[in-house]
Amino acid sequence: MGRHKKRFGQHFLHDEFVLQQITSAINPQANDTIIEIGPGAGALTKHLLPELKQLTVIELDRDLIPALKKLGESFNCELAIINQDVLEVDFTQLASDINTSLRIIGNLPYNISTPVIFKCLESTDAIHEMIFLLQKEVVERLTASPGSKSYGRLSVMAQYHCHTEYLLDVGPEAFTPPPRVDSALVKLKPHDKPLKLLEHKTLQTVVRNAFSQRRKTITNSLKTLISVSEIEALKINPKLRPEQLSVEQFVDLSNHVSTTKIGD
Ligand code: SAM
Prior knowledge:
By secondary structure, the protein is α/β, with parallel strands linked by helices. It has helices at about 15-25, 45-50, 65-75, 90-100, 115-120, 135-145, 155-160, 200-210, 220, 230-235, 245-260; strands at about 10-15, 35, 55-60, 80, 100-105, 125-135, 160-170, 175, 185-190. The chain is elongated and about 65 Å long. S-adenosylmethionine binds near residues 9, 11, 60 and 112.
């Protein structure tokens, strides 16, 4: 195996026990349409290929492509390799090309994990499940409940779209080279029936404004968007701080802001 490239966030899994645990969490089924982001040298890919009829991997580092091709040839599975930046891949297009919704998995490069998650959240019409190995702190934020320290913008946006589940912890020693942070595996499953939201952009604005001043009450941080009496009319205490609001309450605030904007 060649040198690991820091700029690509390359930390390759070598711990077979951890790889088994991740594989059983993914629980690949022969007819699944799995997309693996960042297969690297194929540590996880190797565990998926024997179980599947087809697998698509997205890897940016072209130096890794020949070895991945070779790996594909040794299994009875059709391996499609996309040598591209995952942030430029259109998941909706990919799903419609394959004609089915996707399961997206991967030990993500931590430097781009949040943009990758936001990108996936924007494509939940094309995705039915995501399982990612991430920085533990990010997994804590994705799965945090209202009132906890980790609950913030990422929690609300992820949980608006998905049911999120903390699966397991993975220590730095499972990787070569070991990252400086702890890692964890998370499952995100898009809701069958998401809450009724009038405008996605407005929810983003409300949530961003609310958490930009975490210690302030929502009266303060949202004052350019909504008044105290309007917040009260939604049966929300205007003295609450953003981390005390549920996802439903953020959606209610957002829908109200959307309606009052109409006709402006
Ligand atoms: N799955 C492998 C494993 O567990 O051993 C490698 C995981 S490593 C943390 C992340 C992988 O993502 C690397 O192979 C890296 O080259 C690739 N990568 C980094 N940035 C990427 C991007 N923007 N698009 C696609 N792949 C990327």
